[in-house]
C-alpha cells in the first residue's frame, strides 16, 4: 500500500489519476466483429460464440424449460435472499417515480413534462467466475418499473452451453422478456443491429470486460445510447479515529477482490487510523480465497493522510469516487460537502456490500472520475422526459408578440410568420 | 415535396432515414486541433481563431465593459421579450426540481437520493447569420437553477472581434460566469482540456455545425459528458381535416428555414389536407427572406398519407421526431400514443416557434431518431442524482444475512466478510 502524508495540491492530479487503458488496439477487433454481425447476423453470432466461449450452440434463446429448471435448482435460501433484495431495490426505485409536471407559464400557455419508457433495452450480464445475478436485479427491476416493453438480457454461455441458474432465476423474476446465450462483443453488436434471433434495442446497460466496454462505445456510433462509460470499480473511504480499523480494512478488501485493477483509497486525517487500517488489511488479506487478485489491487492502493478535513474533502471531490464510505465522527461535514460521488455509505455499519446487493440503491455507478458528470443507473435511466405544450387562442395572443420579436431578432422570418399568421386569423 | 400515399411497412425504414453524414474526414482535423490545444493551450486557440474566424484577438475574455455596452445597446423591445421568455423558461424548469427521495427499505436501512449540480459546465453558442441568444436562455437558465458553480459560454467572434449584443445580454442576465470569444473546434477543445484562459468543464451543451458536433463527440473520449449527439433539426406534423393548411405550412417552413438539411415531414390521413398544405407551402415560401435555404429543405421534405391513424402513429413512433405537432380533431390519440418525440405541440394555435423561444419548454432536443433513447435538455441535464445510505446496528442485523448469502453465491468472499465482521462485533 502506498502511504502519502500531506500531499501538496500539485500532486493531486497524479493521485486522482486512474490507470489509463488503451482501447486503440481493441477497437479494430470490435469494429470488425460489428461489421460481420451487421452483415451476417446470427451466423456471425454463432461463429464468435464458438470462437470466444469455445462452444457451438444451436439455439441461443433460453427456453421456458431451461428457466423452469433454473428456478427449481436455485437453493431456497438464495431465492429468499434475492427476493428480499428485490423488494428493497423495488421500493427505492419506485420512490424515484416523478409525476407529470404541468404549469401554465402564461394564461393560455400550458407546458408539461411526462416521462415515457425507452421501448427496447438491452442488459448485459458478464459470465466468468462471478455470476453477477445481483446486476440482473439492479438493471431489470428499474427497467420493469419504468415500463420498458422489451427487456433483452444477454449473457455468455459457460462451457456446457448454459447460463448460471441464479442469473436465469433473477431474470425471470424481474420481467426480462428474452434471455440470450451470447456474450462479449458479439452480444453488443447483436443488440445494436438486431439479427434474426437477437432483438435490436435502443439502449444498452451493464458492466463487462474491456472488450464489452469498447463494444458499448462503438454501439453509440450506430445510434444507441449506453448507461455510462465504464472502468474498473473503485472505493474511497474517509475515516478518522472514530472508525473501526477492521471494518474499514474489510471494505477496502471487498473492493480489491473485484480485480487487480480495482481502485482502493483511504483518506484520513489520523496517522494512527492509517497505520491500524494498514495492519488490518494485511491480516485479513491472508484469509481471502481471491487473495491473489485482491493483493494486486492492494499493492496499488493509496492511504492518504491530510492535515485537515477541508483539504480531505477537496481532494475527494477532485477524485470523484464511484463508492464513497464516510466513517467519521462529523459525518455531516462530508455528507453535505460531497459533490462528486456515485453512491455514499455513511457510518460504521454501512459496508459497501450492502449497496452492492440488497439495501435498495443501485450498484451500477460511474467510475474513473465520471461521478463529476454522470450519475449511476436509476429509474430515470430507463425513461425519457418528453415535453408537451398546448396554447389556446388567448394564449397565442398573450405570447405571440414576444415570439415575433425574438424570431425577427434572430433573423428567422418563417418562425415569426408561423405566429403572425395565427395572430392575424384571430384579428378577423 | 415528395408525396407518398399509403406506404408499405417495408418502406418505413427508408422513409424514417435521415441523410447520413460522414464524419470520418472531419474527425482527423478535429483530433489534430484537440492535440494542439492540449499541448499549446491559448496559443493554439488564438491560431485557430485567426484561421477559422479570420480575426486576431488579443484577449478572448469578454470584459465587464463589453457586457455593459451590450446591455445598453439591445433595444428595449427585445429586452422585454427576452425577459418574458426567461420568466416562462425559469418557471417551467423550476417546476422540474425533484426533492430528496428517502425511504427506509428495512428497519434501520435508510436510503436516499439527492441531486447535486455538475460543478462546471460549458455552453456553446454558434455565431454566424442567426445569433442564437434564445439558446443562451435554454442552456444558462437551467444551469443556474441547478446551481452549477461555473457556467462558461463560448461563442465565435464576428469579423470585428465581437460577440452579438443580444447573446451577451442574455448571458449576463442568466448568470453565465465567464464569456469567451472562441468558437468551433478550438472552443470545444479548450473546454475539454482547459487553457490559461478557457476553463476546463465537465459537461458541454449546445448546438453547432458539423465540426462542433464531431468535436463534442471527440471531447467524450477525454472524459467529458455532452448534452446529446446532434444532427439537423426536424419537424413532423400530423394533421387531419380539422387542421388549418396555412398554419401547418407555416410550421413546416419555419423548420425548413433552419438549413438546407432540415427534416420536414407531414403525416396525414387526409389527401385533401395534404394537397392544401402543399399549395400553401409553395405560396408562403415565395415571401421568405431565407427562401433559398428553405426551398432546398422543402425539396427533400415528405408528405405522407396513411390509411388510418393507427398506422400513422406507428410510423411517427418509428420516425421519433425532434419536434412533433399534433393538429388533429382527436388529439389525445396521438398525445397518449406518442412514445418517441423530443417535444410535442398540440392544437392549431401551438406553433413550434412558441417552444423555440418563449413558452417555457426547452428547445435543445434529440434529433436523428435519438428521441427513442434520449430526452431534450432539462433541469436534470445539469444535475447528478447521487444515492446515500445509512445503516444502523439494528439495520445490519436485519439485512446482513441476505448480503452474506448473495455475496457467497457470487463467489465474493471479501464482500461477505465486510458484513460478517460487523455482525460478529454485535454478537459480543
TrEMBL record, chains A, B:
Its cofactor is Zn(2+). One of its GO terms (cellular component) is cytosol. InterPro entries: Ald_DH/histidinol_DH, Histidinol_DH_CS, Histidinol_DH_monofunct, Hstdl_DH. One of its GO terms (biological process) is L-histidine biosynthetic process. It catalyses: L-histidinol + 2 NAD(+) + H2O = L-histidine + 2 NADH + 3 H(+). Its EC number is 1.1.1.23. Binds 1 zinc ion per subunit. Pfam families: Histidinol_dh. Zn(2+) binds at residues 255, 258, 356, 415. NAD(+) binds at residues 124, 186, 209. GO terms for molecular function: histidinol dehydrogenase activity; NAD binding; zinc ion binding. Substrate binds at residues 233, 255, 258, 323, 356, 410, 415. Pathway: Amino-acid biosynthesis; L-histidine biosynthesis; L-histidine from 5-phospho-alpha-D-ribose 1-diphosphate: step 9/9. Keywords: Amino-acid biosynthesis, Histidine biosynthesis, Metal-binding, NAD, Oxidoreductase, Zinc. PANTHER family: HISTIDINE BIOSYNTHESIS TRIFUNCTIONAL PROTEIN, HISTIDINOL DEHYDROGENASE HDH. HAMAP family: HisD. NCBIfam families: hisD (TIGR00069). Catalyzes the sequential NAD-dependent oxidations of L-histidinol to L-histidinaldehyde and then to L-histidine. Belongs to the histidinol dehydrogenase family. This is Histidinol dehydrogenase. It comes from Flavobacterium limnosediminis JC2902.
Amino acid at each position: 500500500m502506498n502511504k502519502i502524508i500531506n500531499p501538496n495540491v500539485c500532486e493531486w492530479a497524479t493521485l486522482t489519476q486512474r490507470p489509463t487503458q488503451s482501447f486503440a488496439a481493441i477497437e479494430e477487433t470490435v469494429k470488425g466483429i460489428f461489421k460481420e454481425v451487421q452483415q451476417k447476423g446470427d451466423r456471425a453470432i454463432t461463429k464468435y460464440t464458438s470462437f470466444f466461449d469455445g462452444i457451438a450452440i444451436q439455439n441461443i434463446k433460453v427456453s421456458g424449460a431451461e428457466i423452469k429448471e433454473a428456478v427449481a435448482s436455485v437453493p431456497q435460501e438464495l431465492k429468499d435472499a434475492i427476493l428480499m433484495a428485490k423488494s428493497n431495490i423495488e421500493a427505492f426505485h419506485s420512490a424515484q417515480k416523478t409525476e407529470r409536471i404541468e404549469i401554465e407559464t402564461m394564461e393560455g400557455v400550458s407546458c408539461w413534462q411526462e416521462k415515457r419508457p425507452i421501448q427496447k433495452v438491452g442488459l448485459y450480464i458478464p459470465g466468468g467466475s462471478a455470476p453477477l445475478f445481483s446486476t440482473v436485479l439492479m438493471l431489470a427491476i428499474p427497467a420493469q418499473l419504468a415500463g420498458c416493453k422489451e427487456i433483452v438480457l444477454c449473457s455468455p454461455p459457460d462451457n456446457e452451453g448454459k447460463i448460471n441458474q441464479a442469473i436465469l432465476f433473477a431474470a425471470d423474476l424481474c420481467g426480462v422478456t428474452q434471455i440470450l446465450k451470447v456474450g462479449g462483443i458479439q452480444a453488443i453488436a447483436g443488440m445494436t443491429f438486431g439479427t434474426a434471433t437477437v432483438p435490436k434495442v435502443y439502449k444498452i446497460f451493464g458492466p463487462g470486460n474491456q472488450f464489452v466496454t469498447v463494444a458499448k462505445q462503438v454501439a453509440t456510433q450506430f445510434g444507441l445510447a449506453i448507461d455510462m462509460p465504464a472502468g474498473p470499480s473503485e472505493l474511497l473511504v474517509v475515516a478518522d479515529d472514530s472508525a473501526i480499523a477492521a471494518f474499514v480494512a474489510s471494505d477496502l478488501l471487498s473492493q480489491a477482490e473485484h480485480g487487480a485493477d480495482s481502485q482502493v483509497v483511504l483518506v484520513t486525517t489520523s496517522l494512527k487510523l492509517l497505520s491500524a487500517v494498514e495492519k488490518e488489511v494485511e491480516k485479513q488479506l491472508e484469509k481471502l480465497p481471491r487473495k491473489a487478485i485482491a493483493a494486486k489491487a492492494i499493492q496499488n492502493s493509496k492511504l492518504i493522510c491530510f492535515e485537515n478535513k477541508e483539504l480531505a474533502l477537496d481532494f475527494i471531490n477532485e477524485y470523484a469516487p464511484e463508492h464513497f464510505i464516510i466513517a467519521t465522527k462529523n459525518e455531516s461535514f462530508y455528507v453535505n460537502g460531497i459533490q462528486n460521488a456515485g453512491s455514499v455509505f455513511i457510518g460504521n455499519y454501512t459496508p459497501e456490500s450492502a449497496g452492492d446487493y440488497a439495501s435498495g440503491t443501485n450498484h451500477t455507478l460511474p467510475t474513473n472520475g465520471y461521478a463529476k458528470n454522470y450519475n449511476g443507473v436509476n429509474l430515470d435511466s430507463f425513461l425519457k422526459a418528453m415535453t408537451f405544450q398546448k396554447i389556446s387562442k388567448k394564449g397565442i395572443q398573450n405570447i405571440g408578440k414576444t415570439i415575433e420579436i425574438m424570431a425577427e431578432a434572430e433573423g428567422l422570418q418563417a418562425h415569426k410568420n408561423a405566429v403572425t399568421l395565427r395572430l392575424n386569423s384571430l384579428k378577423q
